[in-house]
């Protein structure tokens, strides 16, 4: 089970960490008294912080964080909608740590004389060599320092404390304009469907604005006539169906010559941990659901035609891994699943579906809210910035070359694990 900050902590929580000495001589402390501080002291308003100079940073393995620190993490998230995405939940980092065992967390605390340090900011990450990368690697679609307003985030202090030369981040939500300018960050679109309490009305609007969505109803009805009655299972708890969903997704990666995100064992383990199998029953109201995996299945009679595995937290669904049975491709089962899931969202307490970053055409057809996220490297190393920029430029060039699909197919057949380092 994932740790629940509202319940009694597991036995391995609450351990104090010794101070971490940094190579440049800086020392950042999380005193014993910090981990034993009562909840009220750690939940004081952030308005009391006058400057970044009052903040201290300590770095911990995730499973060494105390229950009080995890409670502070979730309290900080609850104070600002900027941190509402499921990837910012401590339970997401917990699942990644259970699968990989290498999640570190930079804990930023407010220090005042004569008072215990209060954790007010959190940055979960992996240290790969001397590079800091998001917890969950490229499966993580939202990154930032959790809990701190942008003007209090000192990236140079974080680089020192975390013993890295750079943070390579690919989806920084709500970045500071100052960061974007200073670190020459780029931007990419991110897409979300907001239902405003009426997902049926939202679906009607999509049908009016997009011909593909409008025609899907006809295809879905045909699927029902020819295969079997259509039924949506919003919260499927079957481990066997989850395994089938992952198998279909992996086959889809192979057909489309895309890196198989489930090739590393840890990604499959993380999905299992988040889902939780049959340990909990299916939920009829997801409006107050704690973070977890949500497997939604579209049935035609007794046949599964499409499935989606994502993350749900308090009515926010992150659309992560949609897939379908190729033998039903003529019915557009992926779109059928999406439209039926939208139709049922308000009934099940789902307020929005977040498609994440990436400007794929299907996201533009299925969503109405567009934002920008930042991507790039946060570093003072000119050499790392140069190599990071060159790698991105090469990748963008490869996407624009003529006959890119044939080239991609040939390259993937020769190097089936090309790009696997970004999941390591």
From TrEMBL:
Pfam families: Acetyltransf_6. InterPro entries: Acyl_CoA_acyltransferase, BioF2-like_GNAT_dom. It comes from Rhodopirellula sallentina SM41. Residues 218-364 form the BioF2-like acetyltransferase domain. Residues 24-34 have a biased composition (Basic and acidic residues). This is BioF2-like acetyltransferase domain-containing protein. Residues 1-45 are annotated as: Disordered.
């Amino acid at each position: 089970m994932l740790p629940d900050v509202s319940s009694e902590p597991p036995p391995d929580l609450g351990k104090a960490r010794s101070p971490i000495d940094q190579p440049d001589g800086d020392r950042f402390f999380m005193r014993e008294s910090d981990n034993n501080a009562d909840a009220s002291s750690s939940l004081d308003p952030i308005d009391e912080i006058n400057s970044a100079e009052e903040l201290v940073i300590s770095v911990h393995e995730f499973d060494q964080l105390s229950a009080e620190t995890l409670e502070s993490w979730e309290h900080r998230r609850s104070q600002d909608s900027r941190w509402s995405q499921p990837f910012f939940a401590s339970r997401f980092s917990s699942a990644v740590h259970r699968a990989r065992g290498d999640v570190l967390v930079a804990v930023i605390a407010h220090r005042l004389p004569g008072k215990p340090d209060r954790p007010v900011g959190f940055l979960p990450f992996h240290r790969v060599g001397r590079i800091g990368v998001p917890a969950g690697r490229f499966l993580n679609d939202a990154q930032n320092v959790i809990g701190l307003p942008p003007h209090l985030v000192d990236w140079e202090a974080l680089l020192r404390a975390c013993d890295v030369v750079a943070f390579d981040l690919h989806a920084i939500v709500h970045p500071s304009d100052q960061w974007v300018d200073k670190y020459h960050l780029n931007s990419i679109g991110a897409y979300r469907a907001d239902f405003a309490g009426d997902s049926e009305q939202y679906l009607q609007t999509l049908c009016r604005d997009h011909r593909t969505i409008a025609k899907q109803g006809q295809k879905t009805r045909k699927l029902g006539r020819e295969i079997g009655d259509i039924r949506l299972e919003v919260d499927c708890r079957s481990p066997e169906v989850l395994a089938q969903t992952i198998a279909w997704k992996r086959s889809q990666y192979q057909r489309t010559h895309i890196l198989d995100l489930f090739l590393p064992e840890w990604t499959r383990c993380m999905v299992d941990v988040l889902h939780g199998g049959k340990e909990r029953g299916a939920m009829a109201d997801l409006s107050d659901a704690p973070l977890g995996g949500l497997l939604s299945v579209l049935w035609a009679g007794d046949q599964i035609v499409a499935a989606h595995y994502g993350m749900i937290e308090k009515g926010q669904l992150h659309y992560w891994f949609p897939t379908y049975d190729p033998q039903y491709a003529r019915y557009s089962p992926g779109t059928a699943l999406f439209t039926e899931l939208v139709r049922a969202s308000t009934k099940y307490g789902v307020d929005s579906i977040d498609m994440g970053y990436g400007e794929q055409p299907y996201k533009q057809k299925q969503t109405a809210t567009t934002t920008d996220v930042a991507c790039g490297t946060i570093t003072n190393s000119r050499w790392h910035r140069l190599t990071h920029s060159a790698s991105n430029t090469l990748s963008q060039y490869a996407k624009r070359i003529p006959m890119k699909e044939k080239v991609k197919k040939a390259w993937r057949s020769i190097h089936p694990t090309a790009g696997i380092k970004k999941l390591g």
